[in-house]
Amino acid sequence: MNLSIVIPLFNEQESLPELHDWIVKVVEQNNYTYEIIFVDDGSKDNSWKVINELSSRNKNVKAIGFQRNYGKSPALHLGFEKAQGDVVITMDADLQDSPEEIPELYNMILRDGFDLVSGWKQKRYDNAFTKNLPSKLYNYVNRKISGIQLHDMNCGLKAYKNKVVKSIEVYGEMHRFIPVMAKAAGFSNIGEKVVQHRPRKYGESKFGWNRFINGFLDLLTITFLSKFGKKPMHFFGVVGTLLFLLGFGFAFYLGASKLYNTFTHHPARLLTQRPSFYISLASMIIGSMMFLAGFIGELILRNSPVRNNYLVDKKIN
Q: Phi/psi at 168 (nearest 5 deg)?
């Protein structure tokens, strides 16, 4: 199969028939063998009924529905599990992503050899104050922290090699950082394509301001896990050792100066009256705790079933 199109959705009953017909028109014009996987994330409207009607008249439509709203990441994860196409394309169900982009995204994966291609909505039709400016700031921070030079990491329109989506686990709200997860799994050939962004035709946006705060925290999480998830002592042990040595150095200096002043009969303040004493004590305690955290992390990892969860891409018998 050439193509799997994964579409997570929540309360998008009006747009689904038009989106389906548009996708079918594009893929049939290009003679792709395809499947469309709709993942209904617990919609409260008639989205599930509409999907079932589409499935009854098009055998290439597959429908999956959650009992309640779990979020976009679980919906994508389930869609990725079911996808069978050589190229997997994700897009939103609100008609703001254009299916006309599908052929070029498909070619960039198979012809140009990219592991992942992310859309870039260079010209947006969202509210400039509530979405555009925060999004630009958000993506700037993403580029600096992750090192992946994408202008719109959170764009829902993306294309992947099949083995990429089978090698990552999208959970929580980590769908914003699939390129970071793909890079951590060894898929570093990540491209970008300017795509058309269309005004929302039906309904209203499901995302608010809180996604920027939560997204930043999620980025820190995925960045930390990708670097130290399998070697926690390399972070906690190093930081803990440095803090302990710094505190111990201060404590040694304070103790030596106290003894010197005592034997030379110079006036000296009590150690407990010196703020540096408490700073050194706190540094040693925190350093010891961080070192122990790294050690415990290593013990947990040693008994984890995913401690050797590596992707084998090349093999010679």
A: -125, 155
